Amino acid sequence: MTYHPKSEFVTVMMQRGFLADCTDYQGLDEALSKGVVPAYIGFDATASSLHVGSLIQIMMLRWLQKTGHKPITLMGGGTTKVGDPSFRADERPLLSPDQIDANITGIQKDFAAYLTYDDSQTGAMMINNAEWLDGLNYLDFLRDIGRHFSINRMLSFESVKSRLDREQSLSFLEFNYMILQAYDFLELNRRYGCLLQMGGSDQWGNIVNGIDLTRRVLDHEIFGLTSPLLTTSDGRKMGKSQSGAVWLNADLCSPYEFWQFWRNTTDADTGRFLKLYTELPVAECDRLGALAGSEINAAKIILANEVTTLLHGAAAAAAAEATAREVFEKGGIGDDLPTLTLSAGDLGDGVSIVQLIVKAGLAGSGKEAKRLIAENGAKLNDEPLSNAGLMVDAGMLATPIKLSAGKKRHALVQLG
C-alpha cells in the first residue's frame, strides 16, 4: 500500500504494524484530520478478565486516545448471550446474565490501566450493547434490520465458510451474531456519533456488514479498520503460555508471571512486539529488535518492563525484574514468584511431587509432569528432580520449596 496518511493515528497504525486493512483509507484519514473521531472495539464478556490476546486491540484504543480521538469500549452484555462463532470449531457455552455482569465488572479494571474514562471530548466511554439489544422486539427487528441482509453474502464470509467447509454445525443462534454486531455499529453511530469500528482481521466481515447496514438505514458514511491476527514466530496463538492464558487481571496472573511471559519472547518477535505493545519510539524498537546474540536479552527485559509498567505500574515491573534476577542469576527464591499455598488438610499424609508440579501450574497434567521429570526438566530447590514417586510431607514444607520447569518457569510451594 502506497497511501501516505495525514492523520497521526493512521500514521501510528501503519508505522507500528497495527494495520491489516481498512475500508477507506483516504476517507478515514480525512475524518481523523478534521476533528475528534469516536471509534469502538467490541469485547464479549466471556471471562472476568481479558488476556494478552486482546492487548493489540486495547493498544489501538490507547493510541486513538493519545492522538486526540475518542475510544469507546463496547461490552457485549447482549451479544455474549449469543456467542461469536468467528473461526471457532464449536459453539460457545452460554453464560447467565449474572455471570456476564460479573465479567464486565472484572474487564472494566483491565481497561482502566490503558484508557482515561471521563466526560472530556476525548474521554473514553464504556457502553454495554445490552442497552439496545435486550429490549429488541423480534418481529420489528426482522422487518427493519433483517431485510437488509443477504443470506448468500453471509454464507460467503470466511468465518462462516470455515465452519461449513469442515461440516461442523453452525446454529441459527450463532448465525444471528453477525447481524447483531452490525446493528451495534448502527446504534453506536446513531446514539454516539461513532465513525469507526476496529478489530482483528477475523472481524472484517462483521465490520463490513455494520458499515453497509448503517449506510442503508441512516445514510451515514462510517469506516472499518482491522489489525493482523497475531501468532508468535513459533506458531503459538498470542496470549497463550505453556500454562494457559496470560490474563491482564493481577488476581489471575501475577505481575511477575505477566513480566516473565514478555521476557520469554522469542528473538524474532522482540522488535515487532516492542512496536505493538510499548510506546517506545519506532526507531528505538527497530534498534532493540535488531540486537543479536545475548544482547537481545536486554531488549526483552526492556519489553517486559515497558509492557508490565503500562498494566501494573513501574513498581510492579521493577519488582518483577528484581525477582527474575534473583531467581535466574543468583539461584534464589525471590519474593514475587507464583506461590501455591497448601493447608494441612490439603497435605494430609503427603502429596506427590507430580501433583504439586501440576497444582503449581508448571505442567498441564500428571503425564506432562512425569515426562518433565523423566527428561530432566524439573528441579526441586534448584537441584535436578529425578524421582517421580517422591511424596512431599509437612516436614519438607517447614520452609517453602521451589519447583522449576526448565530454566525459566518457577513456583513456590508453602504451608499456609
Task: Characterise this structure.
- The protein has helices spanning 8-16, 25-34, 55-66, 97-112, 130-133, 138-144, 151-156, 158-165, 172-175, 177-192, 204-218, 255-263, 270-277, 282-289, 296-312, 314-329, 344-347, 353-359, 366-374, and strands at 21-22, 38-43, 70-75, 125-128, 196-200, 223-227, 240-241, 244-245, 339-342, 351-352, 378-380, 383-384, 391-392, 401-405, 409-415.
- It is of the alpha/beta class and 416 residues long.
- Helix 10 packs across helix 11 (204-218).
- The protein is globular and about 75 Å long.
- The mean pLDDT is 87.
Radius of gyration: 24 Å
Strand percent estimate: 5-15%
Q: Which structural class do the helices and strands define?
A: alpha/beta
Looking at the structure, what is the overall shape? globular
Distance between the termini: 59 Å
Tags for this entry?
15 strands; single chain; about 425 residues
Write the layout of secondary structure elements.
Layout: H1 8-16, E1 21-22, H2 25-34, E2 38-43, H3 55-66, E3 70-75, H4 97-112, E4 125-128, H5 130-133, H6 138-144, H7 151-156, H8 158-165, H9 172-175, H10 177-192, E5 196-200, H11 204-218, E6 223-227, E7 240-241, E8 244-245, H12 255-263, H13 270-277, H14 282-289, H15 296-312, H16 314-329, E9 339-342, H17 344-347, E10 351-352, H18 353-359, H19 366-374, E11 378-380, E12 383-384, E13 391-392, E14 401-405, E15 409-415
Parallel strand pairs: 2-3, 2-5, 3-4, 5-6, 9-15
Antiparallel strand pairs: 1-6, 7-8, 10-13, 11-12, 11-14, 14-15
Helix pairs in contact: 10-11, 12-15, 12-16, 13-14, 13-15, 15-16
